[in-house]
Amino acid sequence: MTEKEYRSSIEAILFAAGDPVDLKRLAESLELPESAVETQLNTLMDEYAAMDRGITVIRLNNSYQMVSVKKYAPQVRKAMDLRRNIPLSQAAMEVLAVIAYNQPVTKSFVEQVRGVDCSGVIGSLTTKGLIEEKGRLELPGRPLLYGTTDHFLRCFSIRSLDELPPIPKDEDKGGRGKQLSIFENAEEGVGQDAETSETPDDGTVTGTVEDIVTEAVEGS
Questions:
Q1: pTM of this prediction exceeds 0.85
Q2: What's the number of domains the chain is made of?
Q3: Does one domain contain both 168 and 206?
Q4: Buried b (16+ CB within 10 A) or exposed e, 68-83
Q5: How far does Cα 175 stand from its chain's mean position?
Q6: Same domain, yes or no, for 107 and 214?
Q7: Which residue from 151, 133, 122, 127 is spatially nearest to 61, judged by alpha carbons?
């Protein structure tokens, strides 16, 4: 096959899959080295960007997914009759931040950081697909460990956890309610499937993380 045919094959696989497809699986399907497939994927993404298309390809850790472009979310939402989703609460944002920066963690760890019971919030974040069980801790009772998901990466428009912004140092803090850059530049709503069963639209996430979370993460 030509390089263009390889890119068309990748496009067909991602479109048919709908969900993220692992790079290794793509390489096996095309009988190419992973590095070669990654090169074709990067070219494909550049082509979508240059043509200002309504769809694109995004990277989530070592997987790739075909998605609609964020700026066309209002039209997609209207066509599919999707309801505007309810933003996450401040408590949910704080729990999500603690888990994202310390994962994998137990519910007890999150509750120790926040000082309150987090059972309901963790259950809600799990239902929304932003966090998931990552195994069990080898301690009495074998408590569950939680971490973030690929959906979390997609919502925050990052490719991997390595792109999480660094926690501000004490001297960088500007007072309570300081925003981490990951929670900036969003129009509305967190966790776009919040309180609904519909397919999320543009996955925009926004919110403020209070100093208690920043201090807890720095001290953990």
A1: no
A2: 2
A3: yes
A4: beeeebeebbeeeebe
A5: 27
A6: yes
A7: 151
Is residue 63 located within the same domain as residue 94?
no
The closest of 90, 104, 112 to 216, measured between CA atoms, is 112
pLDDT tens column, 117-172:
888 889 889 988 899 999 888 888 788 999 998 888 887 878 888 888 887 665 44
For residue 82, being part of any structural domain is answered with: no
Q: Is residue 213 a contact partner of residue 96, using CB atoms and an 8 Å limit?
A: no
97 and 64 assigned to the same domain: no
Residues 214 and 105 in one domain: yes
The radius of gyration computed from the CA coordinates of the chain, to the nearest angstrom, equals 19
In a shared domain, residues 56 and 98: no
The one-character DSSP state at 59 is E
Please indicate, yes or no, if residue 83 is contained in any of the structural domains.
Answer: no
Q: Which of 156, 158, 108, 169 is nearest to 130 (CA)?
A: 156
Is the same domain home to 61 and 143? no
Separation CA 169–CA 188 (nearest Å):
28
Domain region containing 191: 90-219
User: Edge-to-edge strand order for the sheet containing 63-68?
Assistant: 21-22, 63-68, 55-60
The two three-digit tokens of residue 214, written as one number: 């920043």
- CATH number of the domain where residue 173 is located: 1.10.10.10
Give the C-alpha distances (Å, rounded to integers) separating 93 from 46, 67, 114, 155, 206.
Answer: 33, 25, 12, 13, 9
pLDDT 10s digits, 77-100:
778 765 555 677 888 888 999 999
